Amino acid sequence: MKRGFILLAGLMAATAVLAGPRVELVTNMGTLEVELNDTAAPATVANFLRYVDDGSYDGSIFHRLIPGFVVQGGGFDTDYKNLPTYSPVVNESNNGLDNQTGTIAMARTQDPNSATRQFYINLNDNQSLNGGRKVGYTVFGKVTAGDEVLAKMAKVDTGMNMQLRARDVPEQDIVLQQVRRLNNSQASH
After folding, report:
1. How far apart are CA 186 and CA 189, in angstroms?
2. What digits encode the pLDDT tens for the residues 144-167?
3. Could you give the domains of the chain?
4. In terms of Cα–Cα distance, which of 163, 157, 165, 171 is closest to 79?
5. Ranges for the PPIase cyclophilin-type domain (predicted)?
6. Handedness of CA 75, 159, 27, 125 (dihedral sign)
7. Distance CA 70, CA 72 (A)
8. Judging by beta carbons within 10 Å of its beta carbon (0-12, 13-18, 19+), is residue 136 exposed, middle or buried?
9. Residues 114-125: pLDDT tens digits?
10. Is 154 helix (H, G, I), strand (E, B) or coil?
């Protein structure tokens, strides 16, 4: 019996060590926490954390919202001006992670290796984004706290934004007020 408890405790400790970096996204609608999978998507996670660590996600917005699909942000300030980017990251979509409800993934153009700073959170299971025969969109983590915040975001009305020449733009700003890494003692469990 004692041996079973020791084995279980050892497995729990190993699992805790394997948990990826955690990031807090404080928005004007509430706070989300995401756990990043740096094992499945090491280049993508390193890229995302570069923007987190330099503070350049702070004050950016979620500029695209399609209820039942995705909420996308990180690339524009509240005046809809493009934010500076680092070099694009290599596509890691064949990493075994799917675009499922609550996962975070990189936005990109038609070029599979064009992702820079924009990311999205899946509001539904989006198999079409996994790629199938084509190269998909790289999933690199999942929301671990704040599902109610995503639900609140999904209810925001959207419309056409002539400045962006884009549809599906939230009519109420959804602002990323602060984005920061969490240490294990700060993360929700």
Report:
1. 9
2. 999 999 999 999 999 998 877 889
3. 20-182 (2.40.100.10)
4. 163
5. 27-181
6. negative
7. 6
8. buried
9. 999 999 999 999
10. helix
